[in-house]
């Protein structure tokens, strides 16, 4: 198959008029040529941090603090998750997966609660098990927690935070299994950052309260960071120093709990771009190739040999027509209504015909 339009090529998203040629789920080549198409072709998004289990609890808990809302074991989210049955959770997650696909996300890195059962529920949602619509094409990189057996079914371990438990043994077991270890750090305050970094994680999540010493350690180690600025705003913990982090290491964007924020990468990009005033190219990298790099996947940039996970926008929509800078328009302005196609693994999964 091939897609025609203005292609945002490579990790710098250079706009090239022409076509992307795809075969066997891979990008084969980019052909520069004059074409009759207003479409804009970019990599599908990689949402680098989600908790989609709480899709059963959207907008619950107005006015609660971070701990009252999401802290294990008895934050509101965990009580609602315990009270919901398996089928209800699977169905709610499946609808979130479908929404993520329709807003251009091809891959997500999920921190799943509830041990082995929690991971199985997400796998059921991905497989469309009993939810009334089919298997989803979006790829989940699933980080389990709560028991060490979870490594047998998950792609990695996603720790709640260094102050919640001693993670040394599970850190070692994760490395032994050749899987990824991620951990929340510096969300409420700076107190758990050094302990999290001592575990030598593959990535840190949040780092809202990163201070000089932590930034220096990031400089030394280059540990990637996933930031979730809209979530931090909702839980009233401050905003991450996106610019300072990005000067030192790989930074990716995540939408965090579905309970608190819609898992649309368009919304996260616009917010991160306007909050940090970083160049749009850099924000788009945070929403695509940087998250893929953390997960060890070859996608998120349009270049030969990369996975063909692509997002096609209507560049002549009422929202995008006349844009003078396409990358800025994609990052700061585009939304769900501009999506004309989403391609995952070389196959169209969302197609709008109007
Ligand atoms: Zn999280």
UniProtKB/TrEMBL annotation:
Family matches, as Pfam families? Amidohydro_1
SUPFAM superfamilies xref list = Composite domain of metallo-dependent hydrolases, Metallo-dependent hydrolases
A GO term, aspect molecular function:
hydrolase activity, acting on carbon-nitrogen (but not peptide) bonds
Please indicate if the UniProt record lists Membrane as a keyword.
no
- Tell me if Hydrolase is a UniProt keyword of this record: yes
Q: Which UniProt keywords apply?
A: Hydrolase
- Amidohydrolase-related domain: from which residue to which, for each copy? 40-348
| Superkingdom per UniProt | Archaea
Q: Which Gene3D superfamilies does the annotation name?
A: Metal-dependent hydrolases, Urease, subunit C, domain 1
Q: What is this protein called?
A: Amidohydrolase
